[in-house]
C-alpha cells in the first residue's frame, strides 16, 4: 500500500481532542456514559517557548487523557485568557477541536505542513517533546496537532492506555505530577 500524501502521510490520527464548555461535565460524560477512562489530569501546562501565531504567549491549560481502544481522548481546560488555540480564532467547544498525529521528525513534519500550506498556529516544548498545531485551511475545530515525543512520552501513553484496558469505573479521574 502506498504511503498517503499531504498531512495524512505524517502518520495516523491517534487522538481526538475537545475543549468543552464544562470540563467536569465532559469528564463525567466520557466516564459514565461512554465508559471511557480513567482520565489522567496534567494541570497548569505552559509549553516552553510557546508561541501563538509567531508571538510568545503565556497560555496555560489543563488536560485530561484517557483511551477509547486505540484512540486517545483529550479534554482541555484553558486556565487563562492568553492568546492561544483555545481562545481567539481557534476557540471551539463541544465538537472536536483537533486531532493528533505522532511523528519521529518534527522538522520533516514542518516541511510537509509548509508544502501543503498548513500554517503553524501554536508551537512549543513539553519537556523534551516538541509539538506544533497547524491549520490546514479550514479554521475552527480543524487543527492538527503534530507531536514528536521524548523518550518518556510513549511510556506515559502506554501507562494511560493500560489503565483503561480493564478499568472497573473506580477512580475516574487521576492526577499526574
TrEMBL record:
One example GO MF annotation: methylmalonyl-CoA epimerase activity
Protein name (database record): Glyoxalase/Bleomycin resistance protein/Dioxygenase superfamily protein
Gene3D superfamilies reported for this sequence: 2,3-Dihydroxybiphenyl 1,2-Dioxygenase, domain 1 (3.10.180.10)
Keyword Nucleotide-binding listed: no
Keywords: Dioxygenase, Metal-binding, Oxidoreductase
Residue span(s) of domain VOC: 9-149
Keyword Ribonucleoprotein among record annotations: no
Highest taxon in the source lineage: Bacteria
Protein's GO biological process: L-methylmalonyl-CoA metabolic process
Lineage: Bacteria, Pseudomonadati, Pseudomonadota, Alphaproteobacteria, Sphingomonadales
